[in-house]
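Worked problem 6 (solution included).
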Amino acid sequence: STTTVRQTTTVTSGSSPVVALSVNTSFLTSIGGILTLIELILGIIVFSLCYQYAGGHSGIFLLLISFAYWLVSFYIVFSAFLSASGTLLPNTFFYFLFHVFGIILYAAGGIAVLAQLNRFSPSGTIAAGAMGLIAAICHVVHVAFIYKGPKL
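Solution. The predicted structure is:
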């Protein structure tokens, strides 16, 4: 006697489309991802302080630099979070140059804002310049991790 087994698969479809959303948290929990999140937060803080307090050409320069850097950092975090296969961006030369120029531009902007201080400058201007220098230091650490890798 022979036994035949048949398998039936039923597929049901409804009228509403289902969107499958895949998230990738491996970049966000890595050292590079954490540093990128810190750079994003620092960029928003520097931008807010410059917008509120820092005037003059150096304040506008730091405002524009911080805006550009926190926006690109947001794009990097967002694309890494929604990438199903992980991001290849941290392995590119663009990413390295992004952080090298972040060091130069944030340091120049922070120093320029702090150099134009006088006794009537609001404390927010001092904070904007100091946070710009802290953002530059964060980019230095990021470049060190990119260059040396996990051996650092």
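Discussion: The mean pLDDT is 85.
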